[in-house]
Amino acid sequence: MKKAIISIKDLTKLELFKIFELADRRTELFHEYCNSLNHKIVGTLFFQPSTRTQLSLQSAFMKLGGQQIGFSNIEDSRSGNTYHENMEDLGRVLNTYCDVAVMRHYDENAIYELATVTDIPLISAGNGNDEHPTQAAIDLYTIKRETGHLDNIHILFIGTIPSRSMNSLILGLNMWENVTVHIIGNNTNILPAWKKYNVHLYHSINDFIKTCQDLKQIEIIYITEIKNSTSNYNYVFTEKDFALFPNAKILCPLPRTKELPKYFDYNQNSIYFNQANNGIFVRAALYLLLMNVITI
Ligand code: CP
Predict the structure, then answer these.
(1) Which end of the chain is more exposed for a tag (fewer CB within 10 A), N or C?
(2) How many whole angstroms from 45 Cα to the centroid of ligand 1?
(3) Residues with CB under 6 A from ligand 1
(4) Cβ proximity of 250 and 267 under 8 Å
(5) Separation of 255 CA from ligand 1 center, angstroms?
(6) What is the pLDDT of residue 233?
(7) In whole angstroms, what is the distance from residue 249 CA to residue 219 CA?
């Protein structure tokens, strides 16, 4: 297994299947492995805000017997605006203070700089707009759990590019066969990394509906942030739109603003809180593999 999980592609399909199998054990996993990380310390460096990723990575580690140290705000560390300490100097101390490190950073290159000097396992909790590998592992797990498959999936994203959650999930899904990705967003281009995949971009829901041959094929609607600050794009997915997709379930990495109205919370096909709650099991399973408690 790779020591640094920065992209979803740093995990193999075999490793992802093992993570899914372990995550399926839910709280039983914590009973069986509650002492497996005794005397181990995770350093959680959140240099960008986080609720779900930070808390679930900390909680999972502690439920497996370990302890955590770290920052929730870059300005509490020497990497903030006053000292701008470089990632290499940070990495050199992490090697002795921690047994595994997790970092979220607004700069997509920071985690790669850290990885050049860290000997301990490293997990990216999101690097700029680039990737969010543990979110993608959770999303893949949730899609498999809810639909029963990852091959032959048709997914519709609603949100603007770039989005690290969208990017990692598209890269992750394409480890499986015959994946079709539709994106409704305000962008004119898809990312270069997606060009080899079956990815289609639309500018409005009407544009998509006119083109899509069978709306029943869509099993997942994935709503991510619509970045209105960069454009006048104000599309909000409505209940009327959702009624057009009889077989779809709604995922969202959260947090949400107005792109996902609260009235969707009461729809039985809204599974974004299940998705968020799956996070602790998937992230615990990743620790167990990365820390060699479980080998494949
Ligand atoms: N999905 C996600 O990354 O949520 P947080 O920003 O709250 O960690």
Answers:
(1) C
(2) 14
(3) 50-54, 135, 253-255
(4) yes
(5) 6
(6) 57
(7) 6
- Ligand 1 atom with minimal separation from the 49 CA: 6
> 216 CA distance to ligand 1 centroid (A)?
30
| Ligand 1 atom closest to Cα of residue 126 | 3
Give the pLDDT score at 72.
96
In the chain, which stretches have pLDDT less than 70? 228-234
Neighbours of 49 (CB within 10 A): 12
Output the pLDDT for position 227.
74
> What pLDDT score was predicted for residue 187?
77
Distance from Cα 132 to the centre of ligand 1, integer Å:
9
Coil, helix or strand at residue 200 = strand
- Nearest-CA residue for ligand 1 atom 6 is 50
Tokens of 124: 């990216």
Written as one string, the DSSP assignment of 253-293 is -S---TTS-GGGGGSTTB-HHHHHHHHHHHHHHHHHHHTTS
Tokens at residue 96, please? 């002795």
The amino acid at 150 = L
Instruction: Give how far Cα 221 sits from Cα of 10, 118, 131, 260, 276, Å.
Output: 25, 38, 19, 11, 16
Query: CA 103 to CA 111: how far, in whole Å?
Result: 7
What is the distance in A from the centroid of ligand 1 to the CA of 56?
A: 10
Q: What percent of the chain has pLDDT over 70?
A: 98
Closest residue by CA, ligand 1 atom 3: 53
Question: Which amino acid would we find at residue 292?
Answer: N
Q: Which atom of ligand 1 is nearest to the CA of 125?
A: 3
Its pTM stands at 0.97
